[in-house]
Each structure stands twice: as C-alpha cells, then as structure tokens.
Design a protein that fits this description.
- The protein has about 325 residues and is α/β, with parallel strands linked by helices.
- The chain is built from eight helices and 18 strands.
- Strands 8-7-6-5-9-10-11-18-13-16 form a ten-stranded mixed sheet, sandwiched between helices.
- β9, α7 and β10 form a beta-alpha-beta unit.
- The longest helix is centred in the middle third of the chain and has 15 residues.
Length: about 325
C-alpha cells in the first residue's frame, strides 16, 4: 500500500477513517475527500506515484467535496521527492527554526527571494553557517536589496526580475511572475517565509495577497516562527491537527478578513460555531483551541485559518 502505485482507490469508509488512513500512511500525502450526495459515503483518495498525477490535499477540491488538510505534512514532508512546492522569502527577518527553514528551502522545486528578502536570506545563511542552494529568482522593485546582497547573489544561475508596478506588493508580483513556472512544473503549493510581528501593514498586505491570488489550483501558505496560515475557500474542510498541538491546547483562529462570512459551522474546536456569522465589528474566532485531532469547517465565504505550530505557542 505504501508504494502508492495506484492513482485512484475507492473506499466505502467514513471521513474520519479516511483521515486516520492518511495519517498512518503519511507518504500517500495526496488526498481528495469526495462526499457523494447519497446515504453511503465514498472516499476517493487520489494518490501520486513518482510525482505523476499530482493533486495535493492542500488544494481546494470541487463543489460538494471536502478539502482535507494536513499542516504537519506541509512542514515535515518537504524531503519527499514527489512533494512539489515553491519557496518564497519575503523582506522580514527570518526567525524560523534553522532546520525547518533549511529543509523547506533545500527541497523546494523553485526558490525565490523577494527584494529585501534577499538581504534577510543572506543574513540567515551567515548566521546558520550553512551552504544552501541558490535561488532561481530574485524579484521586486529592488528598492530594498543592497548592493552587497546583489554581489553575494551574483550568479548566472539566478534570474533577477524587476517588477516595478507600485499598485501591487512585491509579494503579489512575485507570485504572478512565478505562475507560468509553477504551472510548467506542476506545482500547486507555495510556502512563504515571513513573520507576523512588527509592521501591521506588512501583515495585512500579505493576507491581501492570499485573497488577491486565491485559486482552486494554487495554495499559498504563510509560515512564520510561530504560526502557519492559509486561506480556506468557501466550502467544507477537514484539518488534521497534530496530537501534540491538541494536548498542549495550542491556539488556532478563523478570521473573516476581506468580507463577512454569513454561515460558518465548525466541529472539533473548543468553541464551535453553528451556522454562525463571522465579521469584523461583530465576532471573529481568535484564541480558539482544539477539542479533537480533526477540525471540520464549513464556510460560505473565504476565511483565514491560522494556527500555532511550536510547543511554546500556547493560548
């Protein structure tokens, strides 16, 4: 079963059992949870072998489907040969654990430094005393990257792409520039190194990029030293939460940035919602935590899901 030679397997099992199966066979990381409109539920697991027929469980599925998310796999499975993703570094000092940042960077299929993010990455390399792969791209309007950093990353293997448009952030422009390369390499995930401290305007701009570029074929993850955040599109979702986070009662949040969500239903949280509205000026679900290793979310509008990752980040 572990070799994943089949592209599609049908199981007449419950959604909970499917999630348990995915955790047990973690190398079968590509999963699509399909719930048919009958009394019996049929689970369709789309699995990829040798990088073929990639359909990631981190991507939004079609109408009437439930998206299955496994955030721990995003961080821990980057060494797998068929785990295709791109890595972007933004202009914020990196505070990620060195081994995590190195593993994600080294195994990315495409690597991109965004303007001043090149300064931050050079500093990270020096502090960690590591020899790391070069980025394929450095993008931005180049108002932040220093001449010293340009010299450091002076290589024919690195393409500098000037993106001067001031109507969008360098982050947004970087993803737009990379999209043809992502499609050509069958990449459906982008892991972004950034921080959620310091300038609130930068934090909100990053969240705005998630909304501007929301797609059913590309998922963008904001990874910081304390959290992982991404956009849940309208529909049903199941998030597999590591047992350690449940036991330690780590924080999580559902945030209606951008527009009101009229009807949100959750299960598996300490404070659940039942057909409840989420809206700034009314109610947002922050500083929540887990009652189960599986969190179910049904929303009629896009929501930011954010969760603490490390042992020190409790409520």
């Amino acid at each position: 079963m572990r070799c994943a030679t089949l592209s599609i397997l049908h199981f007449q099992i419950t959604a909970k059992l499917a999630a348990k199966f995915l955790r047990q066979y973690s190398d079968l990381f590509c999963a699509k949870l399909h719930v048919k409109l009958y009394r019996e539920k049929y689970i369709q697991l789309l699995m990829c072998a040798n990088g073929e027929n990639l359909l990631s469980n981190f991507d939004r599925c079609k109408l009437n489907d439930t998206c299955l998310w496994s955030p721990s796999e995003l961080v821990s499975s980057c060494h797998k040969a068929n785990f295709n993703y791109a890595c972007i570094v933004l202009n914020q000092s990196l505070q990620l654990p060195t081994d995590i940042a190195k593993n994600i960077w080294q195994n990315a299929k495409i690597r991109c430094l965004v303007d001043g993010g090149a300064n931050c990455w050079k500093e990270f390399i020096h502090k960690s005393n590591e020899s790391l792969n070069l980025p394929e791209y450095i993008t931005g309007d180049f108002d932040s990257i220093t001449q010293e950093t340009r010299k450091y990353f002076n290589s024919p293997d690195i393409k500098y792409q000037h993106t001067p448009d001031q109507n969008e952030t360098d982050f947004t422009k970087a993803v737009r520039f990379l999209q043809p390369q992502l499609e050509a390499n069958d990449i459906h995930k982008v892991i972004v190194f950034q921080e959620t401290t310091g300038r609130l305007d930068h934090i909100m701009a990053n969240i705005n990029t998630l909304h501007k570029l929301q797609s059913d074929i590309l998922s963008i993850y904001l990874l910081s030293s304390s959290s992982l955040s991404w956009l849940l599109l309208p529909g049903k979702h199941i998030i597999i939460v590591p047992k350690e986070l449940v036991d330690c009662q780590h924080w999580c949040a559902l945030i209606p940035v951008g527009s009101k969500a009229d009807k949100v239903t959750t299960r598996g949280l300490k404070w659940n919602l039942t057909q409840s509205p989420l809206e700034f000026g009314f109610m947002v679900s922050t500083s929540n935590t887990y009652a189960s290793k599986e969190v179910y979310v049904d929303t009629d509008s896009s929501l930011i899901w954010s969760m603490g990752l490390w042992a020190e980040d409790k409520l």
